[in-house]
Amino acid sequence: MSKFPVSRSLNPGSSPNFRELFTPKLVTVLREGYGLAQLRADAIAGLTVAIVALPLSMAIAIASGVSPDRGVYTAIVGGFLVSLLGGSRFQIGGPAGAFIILVAASVQRHGIDGLVLATAMSGVMLMIAGYLRLGTYIKFIPYPVTVGFTAGIAVIIFASQLRDLFGLRLDDPEPGALVEKLGVLASVADTLNPQALLVAVGTIAIIVITKRLRPNWPGMLIAIAFVSIATTLLTLDVETIGSRFGGIPRTLPLPVLPEFSLAKAQAVLPDAIAFTLLGAIESLLSAVVADGMTGRRHRSNCELVAQGVANIGAAFVGGVPVTGTIARTATNVRSGSVGPVSGLLHAVFLLLFMLIAAPLASYIPLAALAGLLAVVAWNMVEKSAISSLLRSSWGDAAVVSITFLLVIFRDLTEGIVVGFALGALLFIHRMATTIVVEEDVPDSAETTPAVHEAEAATQSNTSVYRVSGAFFFGAAATVGTVLDGIIGRDGNFVLDFSKTPLIDSTAANVVESVARKAQRAGVRMFITGTSPSVRQTLIANGVRAPLVTYEPTIAAALDQLRNVPLRSSPY
């Protein structure tokens, strides 16, 4: 039978060498051979992604409570470093909608300087997580949790755009909490600007229609350009980037170290941790999506290191947190990208756009960017996945619902942590219910007449049981109760582990307790069919001679009971 080397990819405890883990995919692609045809494909993909990323980066920055230029800086510097050093062939880095609520809250609490420091600290944490090889474990976030928090983020993003969608006028900053925000916005409903609403609805309509009729066209850029021109020609009374922020610069700022002090670092530490957690999850989820679209495999730990460097780089130019972006990464794949060069070129194109067309950004209506983010929020909600999870089981429905509600009404990090904990408990419950204790099982490995004779002769005074399934702490109490009820019922006891792939210390201690009970009752106990790892765990927890006798098969144990040595035991 042929064997496939699956243990390394499936077992997080295995140890590939450093070079294998942390070689950027750019190096891998260049080694494979990279010519003009590949460069042409990547240039087209990079230009397409840049066209999508330009308005989106500004919109995310504004929604996050910072000026639009910081979003563009993040997309240029962060996006370049993610593609240069990352572990995914197709990942596009930049500012992400998922961070809007976290960034806005950080700015309100600590100001721009605090946000920049938290971003840099998050970058260091991401690098440490990558070098500690934690990327494999971050991917274990349950699917219902990712669906729930993504939907929750989408609701928060949409709520954050209501002010600009309707052109409402507020004298004070919006509250961060959803319920308070809606209350404040409702109190100024009489300031609604019909022209701003018309611009927002027009932007949404153009994006949706373009997507349906010409899916390969850059609908977001077309919508922003059209409504900006219309707003200027019709002299509509709506806020623009120019009226609120004074436009955006035409060049990148020089790198500057974030202002640091121990007190400030302690103050922004919770924000940095939140950025790190969400950034790791979002980036690796995006890389997994790209893998699913292309059949490739990313290097999760290398990707975390690259995300860390990108966040540090973005902080040096006053940017916001960087992460892998699912929508832009998917656009990159669909546009024909063959490797990370498209991500590098996307950053270069964004820089050129800023150098050439920065003055034009002043004419972009904020209502148009709000309409764009409303479409982004709608697309973030995985409607079919939510429907399937709500119908699949009560456990999955509970996890996705609780995660969603906590993200909306409490806190994003709390939603992820609680959702993960509930998902883990659900997994433990499901695993615990799959374990089976079978009585009088046949030993299919032995079919000789002597074995059948041994089985028949010992049937009257021997209990034979097999534990099937993962034997761990979640099932230990149940299995222990069953085994305790068996001891003393017959003269001998055979417990087979040939269908037990793993056993933990809790379960091993249960077996040890059963073995001691058997010894006190004068019952001779055999353990059969153990794999090396299962046997090692049992022995380490005291399940050894003279409490028990190990044999390779049930038949060998029955032969020992009849003193008919068919073969010598290797144990």
Question: Can you give me a brief rundown of this structure?
Answer:
Helix content is 64%, strand content 5%. The protein has 571 residues and is mostly helical.
Tally of individual helices: 26
Strand order of the main beta sheet, please?
3-4-5-6-7
Structural class: mainly alpha
Helix content: 55-70%
Oligomer: single chain
Low-confidence stretches: 1-13, 444-454, 564-571
- Major sheet attributes: 5 strands, mixed
End-to-end separation:
26 Å
Which geometry do the CA atoms define? elongated
**Number of DSSP E strands:** 7
Number of domains: 2
Task: Name the average pLDDT.
Answer: 85
Rg value? 30 Å
| Beta-strand proportion | 5-15%
Explain what this protein looks like in three dimensions:
With 571 residues, this protein is mainly α. The protein has 2 domains: 36-379, no CATH class; 436-562, Transcription Regulator spoIIAA, CATH 3.30.750. The chain is 64% helix and 5% strand. The strands form 2 sheets. Strands 3-4-5-6-7 form a 5-stranded mixed β-sheet, with helices on both faces. β4, α23 and β5 (492-499) form a beta-alpha-beta unit. The two termini are 26 Å apart. Residues 452-561 form the STAS domain. InterPro entries: SLC26A/SulP_dom, SLC26A/SulP_fam, STAS_dom, STAS_dom_sf. It is a multi-pass membrane protein.
